[in-house]
Amino acid sequence: VEGLTKTRDNILGGVDQVLSGFSSIDEDFYEELEEALIMADFGVHTALRILSDIKVKVKEQHIKDPMEVKNLLKEELMEIMHLSDDAYIFEEKKSVILIIGVNGVGKTTTIGKLAMRYKAQGKKVVLAAADTFRAAAIEQLTEWSNRANVDIVAGQANSDPGAVVYDAVFAAKARKADMLICDTAGRLHNKKNLMDELGKINKIIDREYPEAHKEVLLVLDSTTGQNALQQAKQFKEVANITGIVLTKLDGTAKGGIAIAIQSELNLSVKFIGVGEGIDDLQDFNPEEFVEALFK
Ligand code: GDP
């Protein structure tokens, strides 16, 4: 997978060193392996869980060679990262996609990339600029809508986000849109505000557009490592997240965070951002991801 080189180097850098640096599997080996997994941003909880599973399998299968632990590790990661069969079902339906996340993680860019992808598939796309607290966000999203050549509904700066969503739903219905993609404000420092606002937007969509499938994508910046995991925890408390977009995987060695998010929060990464360009969004493919880590 392009853009994942750094992640691979980092995870394998550490893990490979441990695997090849030992001639037998003992407590020291496990300790160093644990440290390598934590360094790769798997998170302590997940690293320990993986390690305890591996220990059981090493015993059961009478494994003596540290290099063979690599296959066990791969198996573990494949199991953790498995995506359910209906992960992308929303792409086959008339859908509303709510994009949530704190400022700066790549929400606007992701919306531009998604708009481009669905437009290229021949779908009718409408964007809603419901992050009305930042005038710049409205401008940026308008630019992306021009680039992707899709319609956008934008209110004035500081107008009511609910009203923008209401108008956007009306426009989506009138234009028989396949995809309505809504930007939202990401002020996580005020949990009650965020909850109220997302609640209001959800209510409007449920009431005015019940025929649409609802997908809620939380955007996380992979370069922030464990902070991304904290954000996911907090957003999970206020929103029905249906998937994660992990951005900036091209510039980081912290891709292990994908594993921590899935393992600790049971949230599936569905898309990855691998650059700033309009084409730099990929479906998350767990098999490819894990294989890339082990190539
Ligand atoms: P927002 O505040 O969440 O809407 O974030 P933006 O979409 O404005 O993105 C913030 C910065 O991150 C911009 O400079 C983007 O070009 C950059 N960015 C977004 N996604 C990616 C990505 O996948 N890779 C890289 N390298 N940069 C990205």
Summarize the model shown:
This protein has an eight-stranded mixed beta sheet, with helices on both faces. The protein has eleven helices and eight strands. The protein has helices at 5-21, 27-39, 44-60, 69-81, 107-120, 135-148, 161-174, 191-208, 226-238, 257-265, 286-294; strands spanning 95-100, 125-130, 151-154, 179-184, 213-221, 243-247, 269-273, 281-283.
Structural class by secondary-structure content: alpha/beta
Report how far apart the termini are.
Answer: 10 Å
Tell me the helix content: 40-55%
Mean pLDDT figure: 90
Q: What is the gyration radius calculated from CA atoms? A: 21 Å
Spans with pLDDT under 50 lasting ≥5 residues? none
- The ordered string of helix (H) and strand (E) elements is HHHHEHEHEHEHEHEHEEH
How many H/I helical runs?
Answer: 11
Strand content range? 5-15%
Biggest beta sheet attributes: 8 strands, mixed
Number of E strands: 8
What characteristic shape results from the CA principal axes? elongated
- Major sheet: arrangement of strands: 3-2-4-1-5-6-7-8
The kinds of small molecule bound in this structure are: guanosine-5'-diphosphate
What does this structure look like?
It is a peripheral membrane protein. One of its GO terms (molecular function) is signal recognition particle binding. It is an enzyme of class 3 (hydrolase). InterPro entries: AAA+_ATPase, P-loop_NTPase, Signal_recog_particl_SRP54_hlx, SR_rcpt_FtsY, SRP/SRP_N, SRP54_GTPase_dom, SRP54_N_sf. Part of the signal recognition particle protein translocation system, which is composed of SRP and FtsY. The protein is α/β, with parallel strands linked by helices and 295 residues long. 51% of the residues lie in helices and 15% in strands. The protein has 11 helices and 8 strands. It has helices spanning 5-21, 27-39, 44-60, 69-81, 107-120, 135-148, 161-174, 191-208, 226-238, 257-265, 286-294; strands at residues 95-100, 125-130, 151-154, 179-184, 213-221, 243-247, 269-273, 281-283. The protein has an 8-stranded mixed β-sheet with strand order 3-2-4-1-5-6-7-8, with helices on both faces. Helix 10 (257-265) links the parallel strand 6 (243-247) and strand 7 (269-273). Helix 3 crosses helix 4 and helix 9 runs parallel beside helix 10. The longest helix has 18 residues, at 191-208. The N and C termini lie close together (10 Å). Guanosine-5'-diphosphate (GDP) binds next to helix 5.
